[in-house]
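Backbone-to-sequence.
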């Protein structure tokens, strides 16, 4: 994977895409016949299986989201190593649900 361009970080866009895909993927799981059949048959599913069912436009948005997510991970890791920001924990990653609730009414990120 290539090194992310840290100058491309856009938190507002990241949150927008995060919320969009949270809803979009749930709609896919609930309505797409191919995915519903996989679930009914108890087959395991990869995130790539879901993304492949998205429209071409949504797949392009997904790639934009993944680039932003890589930048966010870089900043989160850097802050973690420098002892800044929210410490990492296995349940919540680099965020905590308590922090999300206190900041404002924004939906939590994945």
């Amino acid at each position: 994977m290539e090194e992310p361009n840290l100058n491309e970080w856009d938190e507002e866009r990241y949150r927008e895409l995060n919320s969009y895909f949270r809803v979009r993927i749930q709609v896919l799981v609930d309505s797409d016949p191919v995915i519903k059949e996989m679930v009914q048959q108890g087959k395991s599913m990869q995130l790539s299986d879901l993304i492949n069912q998205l429209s071409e436009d949504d797949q392009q948005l997904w790639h934009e989201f993944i680039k932003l997510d890589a930048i966010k991970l870089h900043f989160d890791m850097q802050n973690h190593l420098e002892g800044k920001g929210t410490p990492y924990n296995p349940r919540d990653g680099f965020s905590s649900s308590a922090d999300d609730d206190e900041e404002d009414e924004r939906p939590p990120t994945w």
